[in-house]
Amino acid sequence: SYWLGGNDIEIEGVFKWVKSDQPLTYADWSPGQPDDANGEDCMELRGAFQYHWNDLPCNIPHHFICEAAAFEANTIIGK
Q1: Which entry of 14, 53, 61, 76 is 20 to 30 Å from 32 by CA?
Q2: Based on the number of CB atoms within 10 Å of its own CB, is 4 exposed (0-12), middle (13-18) or buried (19 or more)?
Q3: 69: burial class by Cβ within 10 Å (0-12, 13-18, 19+)?
Q4: DSSP character for 10?
Q5: Which Pfam families does the protein's record reference (predicted)?
Q6: Is the CB of residue 58 less than 8 Å from the CB of residue 64?
Q7: Which of 36, 30, 42, 38 is closest to 3 using CA atoms?
Q8: pLDDT tens figures, 12-66
Q9: Which residues neighbour 52 within 8 Å (Cβ) at sequence distance 6 or greater?
Q10: What is the pLDDT confidence band of residue 11, given thresholds at 50, 70 and 90?
Q11: CATH value of 2-64 in 3.40.190.10, 3.30.70.60, 3.30.365.10, 3.10.100.10
């Protein structure tokens, strides 16, 4: 599982991205999620849910995914 960088800590049920403080414009929740079970406020990408999103308590240790600026690369194939 991987942390995605979003949470609903400020307003329950309104997930925002940590970096931009903007609400989600796209969501890929696993069926039945988010369910806020036991106060779950952070978003994870969960392998057991076919890599759909799940909410989870923010204090659970996970790897994380970082956002980076896109770049263009020139690719030369052959000679």
Answers
A1: 61
A2: buried
A3: exposed
A4: S
A5: Lectin_C
A6: no
A7: 42
A8: 999 999 999 999 999 999 999 999 998 999 999 999 999 999 999 999 999 988 8
A9: 28, 29, 30, 31, 33, 45, 46
A10: very high
A11: 3.10.100.10
Residue 3 pLDDT = 94
CA distance 48 to 1: 8
Q: What pLDDT, on a 0 to 100 scale, did the predictor assign at position 68?
A: 80
| Domain range annotation of the chain | 2-64
Cα(46)–Cα(38) distance, integer angstroms: 18
**Amino acid 40: pLDDT:** 97
Instruction: Provide CB contacts within 8 A for 68, sequence distance 6+.
Output: none
